[in-house]
Amino acid sequence: MSDDEADLELLALLRQSLGLGPANQNAPAETAVLEGARYVYDNSIDVALDSQGTRTAAESIWAAMRRKEYSTKTWATHELHPKAKNEDTINLIFTIDLLNFSFWSDSGPDQRFAVDYGGKKWTGYWSLVAALQRALDEGIPITSSDFWQSEDDCSQDLMKRVFRSATNEEIPLFDERLACLREAGRILYERFNCRFLNCIDEAGGSAAALVNLLAENFPCFNDKQRFEGKQVHFYKRAQILVADIWACFEGEGYGRFHDINKITMFADYRIPQILYDLGCLRYGPLLENHIRQHKPIPSGHTWEVQLRGCSIWCVELIKNQILRQHPEAEVNAILIDFYLYDTMKAREAVGDEGIPHHRTRSIWY
Questions:
Q1: Which residues contact 246 (CB under 8 A, 6 or more apart)?
Q2: Which residue in 3, 66, 88, 335 is deepest, having the highest Cβ count within 10 Å?
Q3: Rounded to an integer, what distance in angstroms lies between the CA atom of residue 102 and that of residue 236?
């Protein structure tokens, strides 16, 4: 047992000694992501929230979301996102979010990893979706967990073909992406009868339960760090997987989750960037200098944890401010995150990024 793992027998004895009785097995699932974000915010010294900036941003974000009619329907309007509402789409979303990490590049916009598909050149997250859609068009069963497990069928050479680039730069963390697919294929085979849909069924309509199931069963989704003596959960890709299913199916069918609002913003490198530009986040001089000089920050470094935790808490405050001022608003942290990400990508496309994003290379985001 590692230091991070709870001794369940010891916890049970402790509860009994305190007269607390056994834990309630029927209690609603909680991811503890928001609790961890609040702890990070309370103990941060290099990242701070600007209260006035956050309130002002909340109004401008909500106005823009209303103007653009931002909702779950927006997800499927993206050219590359699947439109069908069936198990094939579920499998594609699962595959996307298994591999949905680390697309940033220090190369120029014309030199960075990109995928040619549908007559366009795609970068960032969209390069991944384009590569997977292209593979399916070419008859490669890239969303099949049986395929992932076979080193003969799903060979390194074939996967390099799947992720072939329109430039000289290859996709970052290629080996790690292949390892994620192999691991997920094995776990689906051993525990879920080779169907990701069985994970959704086991969660019983709870978004939080599905996030926890992913983190507990699939190591590549178990996104957590230690910060100031406490383990904090981020679960970025597990949460965005649930959110993508919810948005794709517009909260119905496979996407019906009774506690979807327990999902927080997805702690990556793009949302802190736009929150800073909107005047919501403030950085200490050393951290700001480091980011502006494009210097890498190791995964798990205190700066990185502060950036991620404070961003989650900031978006939560933005959401609460919108709901206080506009009680009729149908908004949650997912939709705010989707809007902020799309806005940041639009700014990137026209060279209007403001502060650079922080540079951390990892499988978590």
A1: 72, 207, 255, 257, 260, 263, 334
A2: 335
A3: 12
Q: What three-state secondary structure class fits 46? A: coil
What is the average per-residue pLDDT within 47-53?
A: 98
Give the bridge partners for 122, in sequence order. 115
**d(C-alpha 61, C-alpha 252), whole Å:** 26
Mean pLDDT of the 337-353 span: 92
Residue range 92-109: mean pLDDT, rounded: 96
CA distance 184 to 322: 38
pLDDT in tens, 225-250: 999 999 999 999 999 999 999 999 99
Cβ neighbors of 222 (< 8 A, separation 6 or more) are 215, 216, 235
CB count within 10 Å of CB 177 equals 22
d(CA 352, CA 124): 16
The confidence score (pLDDT) of residue 2 equals 46
Q: Which of 97, 244, 268, 337 does the annotation list as catalytic?
A: 268
Asked about 268 being catalytic, the answer comes back as yes
Q: Which of 218, 262, 260 is nearest to 237 (CA)?
A: 218
pLDDT at 120 over 90: yes
What does the radius of gyration of the chain's CA atoms come to, in whole angstroms? 20
**3-class secondary-structure state, position 359:** strand
* Residue whose structure tokens are 């993206």: 78
Q: Are 354 and 276 in contact (CB under 8 A)?
A: yes
pLDDT in tens, 17-27: 555 555 556 78
Query: For the chain, what's the residue count?
Result: 365
pLDDT at 133: 98
The pair of structure tokens assigned to 341 is: 């990400």
**In this structure, what DSSP letter does residue 153 have?**
T
Say how far apart CA 266 and CA 308 lie, in whole Å: 9
Task: Kindly report the backbone phi and psi dihedral angles of residue 296, in degrees, each rounded to the nearest multiple of 5, phi listed first.
Answer: -70, 150
Backbone angles phi, psi at 84, to 5 degrees: -70, 150
If 0-12 CB within 10 Å is exposed, 13-18 middle and 19+ buried, where does residue 295 land? exposed
The answer to whether the CB of 261 falls within 8 A of the CB of 315 is no
Place of tokens 């799947």: 162
- pLDDT per residue as tens digits for the range 281-301: 999 999 999 999 999 999 999
